[in-house]
Each structure stands twice: as C-alpha cells, then as structure tokens.
Amino acid sequence: MNIWSPECKGEQFSASVIRLATGPETGDTNGIYVGWAVSPAVYGDDNAHLFTFWKGGDGSTGCYDMRCPGFVQTDKGIVLGDVYNKTSDYGGIQQVADFHITQDPVTKNWILSIGKEERQAGYWPTELFPLMAGDKGATRLSFGGITMRGIEQEESPPMGSGYKPDKDARHSAIMIQILFSGNYSEFRAPFDYETDNILDNSKCYGLNNYGQTDDYGYLIAFGGPGGPNC
Known about the structure:
This protein is an all-beta fold. It is built from one helix and 14 strands. The chain has a single domain, classed as Jelly Rolls.
C-alpha cells in the first residue's frame, strides 16, 4: 500500500488497512488490522504511523499496537506505532509499505511480517482469538480505507491522498499485489466472484477495483476528501 498523511484533528481517524476477521458482519468478534493510520487521539500527532489493532476473546478485549498484553514482539527494530517519516506525493514519488500476515502451521500463531523481505515483527498468539484459533482461520479478508470523524468533529477526514481515484495510481490510496491463501495453500490473487466492493458514501469517497493487472497484480484504488454528512 502507498502511505499518505491525510489531515486529521481531534478524534478524527484515517487509515489504509488490511483486516482478517471472524464474527458477525456488523461487528467483528475476532480480528486483526494492519496498515498505516493518522490519529491525533491515538498517537498524539498528525503523522502517519505503522498501525495495528486486534480484537479477541468475546470481542471485548484488544488494543492498538502494543498498548496492552497481546502482540509478542520478536524484532526490536520494528516498533508498532512508529512514525512514517516519508509519505507519498500526489502525482509524484510514492512511499510504500508491504505487509504479510500468516498463520504458523505448527503453533497456529498469527505472524506479522513487514517489507518486501518479509521481516518478522512478531506475532499474535492464537489463544487471543478463539474464533480464529487452530485451523478455523478467518472468515473474511478486507482491504481498503477506514475513516472516523469523532464526537467533536462535524466532518469526516480525508482518506488517502484526499482525492478520489482516477486513472493515475499516484493520485490516490492504492493497494497492489493483493494475495491470500486458504488452508496453507499457495498464495494467489482473489477471483472476481470472491470479492465485494463496499463504499459507504460515494459523495465523500471513491473506490475502483481494477482486479488483476499486468503491472501491479491485483489493484484497488480508493480515497477522497471526506467532509460533512459522510
């Protein structure tokens, strides 16, 4: 995914996220979220941060990054919640982040790897997620953007670059080379019949699902300016 720093204030939240989840469609009971986020309320500034969130047990436990017991850090050089000092330029140089989430076939723990070299940052123990423990796995995978406006803000924040996607991939938030695996099979791109395109408010944000492409693998583009009534 490419990294942006949309303007957020107060409790506004804007992120590009990969989500593995199990539970009712209207509210995940167990889930893992990974990507980047801008959240002054969580991080104390308006920078883009390496973002993770998990929800476990009966849905009542979990937290951001390492703010509660859960995630086990194995690489001290990778800090969940760390700042991305460089972000993408509209139409220019794109700063990117690579994420890889796998389940260890022996321990059943959920492993987070970062970068093209798949450097292992750590793992979430399988015991945190009773609905995804063992061979149950996740029932849903989601890729895209999330925004929240907060109680004190009247407008929803921008998503990604703050522009809706167009024909130039450097103009919006994108995710490329989307791959997944089931039951420890080979990684592959999704088929069209396996995907749903969900856009909550087309006035404020846009979504283009390009599917499998020659240059970028499986590609989606999303984002927008936000605003009132989003």
